[in-house]
Amino acid sequence: MPFIRRNISKLITTVLMGALSVFFLIPFVWMVSSAFKFEKDVMRFPIEWIPKSINVVYNFKAVWMGKVPFLHIYFNSIKVAVIVTFITLLVSTMAAYSFTKLKFRGRNLVFTALLAFMIIPDQATLIPRFMLIRWMGLYDTHVALIFMSMFSIYFTFLLRQFMVGISDEYIEAAKIDGAGHFRTFASIIVPLCRPVLATVAIIKFIWSWNDYQNPLIFLQTKDLYTIPLGMTLFRDDYTTNDAIMMMASLSAIVPLLIVFIILQKQVINGIALGGVKG
Amino acid sequence: MEAAKPSLKTEKPQKARKFWTPKRKEALVGWLFLAPEIVGMLLLNVFALGFSLYLSFTSWNLLSGISGIKFAGLENYIHMFQDPTILKALKNNLIYTVLTVPVPIAIALVLAVLIHNKVFWKDYFKVVFFIPYISSIIAVAAVWSALFHPSLGPVNQFLMDLGISNPPKWLVDPKTSLISIAIISSWAGLGYTIIIYLAGLTNISSELYEAAEIDGATALTKFFKITVPLLRPTTFFLLITMLIGSFKVFDIISYLTEGGPDNSSTVIVFRIYEEGFVNYNMGYASAISWLLFAIIAAITAATWKMRKEE
Fold first, then answer.
1. Percent of chain B with pLDDT strictly greater than 90
2. A-B interface: how many C-beta pairs under 8 angstroms?
3. What ipTM is given for this predicted complex?
4. Closest Cα in chain B, distance from residue A191 (Å)
């Protein structure tokens, strides 16, 4: 009977945790429901969880075709996140390859220095970064955003940990076949790293998509904004219309939510990777 | 080895072949592969830290151009420790740390243990608690700002329904603004803490629990005598990460309150932003940046020492 008793207690815990998880997600439920409502119904109490009258088309149009160039901002976010993800992966994979599979003097010194830099918070170097970007003539461009996020010691470190586990025999074999360092890198190392690269790519994409600080500092033109900074435009233009605000939030969150639900294993493992090894 | 090779490649000029030995070639390729990362690090860390150290000893308003940089000695630093908004920011950072580190860690630990082996559909729970973490904190903050609306918001309407005639004004009241922000960011970050704990839990052998059960240990004893002690390294990691993270808080404050009302929710990073990018006092902002760097470095050094002593 202990088996049955155990399962019953497990069922009870599941039900309680289920209730808690619903409570935890109330802000999201409220957001979705409000995005479908008329402005005047959003703050009505008791809350109409399923709206009686629906105004979703109007709200949708106000967000996507209204004063705020949201479609444009959306495209900016996709563009910047894709480029940042690709370049970060390239830079970090190359560095990790050098740190693990190429032997030369000074290698370990550079690695130690990189690890030491990890403690410098981005926020402490905002002023000189800003000056640097202005002097390079990159202020108010997407290149500035990309340049600021394309170097990641953290990812270099994760990829290095993974590559340490790749046997040197692969590289010896490639050498015997006459492959140079570049060929070995592109056709042996990168394919072998595919699982960890996929994980790292998703996480970088999420971080870039949600980045608020860099666009705030390095952009000025509204047409160049990415989504999180774009949210401030809605805040300023629709202070009182919560239905439109909630539609904007929903639109900002949904694409990542879909990506996350499809790739949940990779995302969760990727986050855990940093935690366990860090 | 060189001598053993027959001179098949004599067409190549002697000198070049001698210089580009495989070892040298490997070193060259090694540096080439590292080059982008090194350039980035030199510009964004080494140069940046040096330049901000220099600026922190100057008085410079960005609008006056490069020629407006004037040496000011320790003036910025002296001013900093007399500046009430800096002291307020430091105090707020400390309060924010107390609110957002220990409590969420404790809640996440309990939830992680429950999710780990006490429920069905484990994956569902992992996903649910993680959703706020992957969502844009700004979009999430926009939702909470409506929920927390002082007179019309659902939170306060609910509280008034319960008979609380004077519910807190949340984000717009200096007394509760910081707490409100702490609630929102703890809620948003809980999923991360749970995931890290779950990863730690998978490393604990189930045999330990089975042995304890044979000895008649209750669930509570198992939790405090096995789970908590064995998760110490994970807890330690979370503590450091979240401690440092709490001193770097900026996005949510910038979007929701801009440090207000009446500086009640201002923090160090927001002060850097305000002085540097609103008032253009680059010298003073650099001095505050160094204060932030010193705090983070001190936390890191202290934790390293603690780790060594363990």
1. 53
2. 270
3. 0.88
4. 17
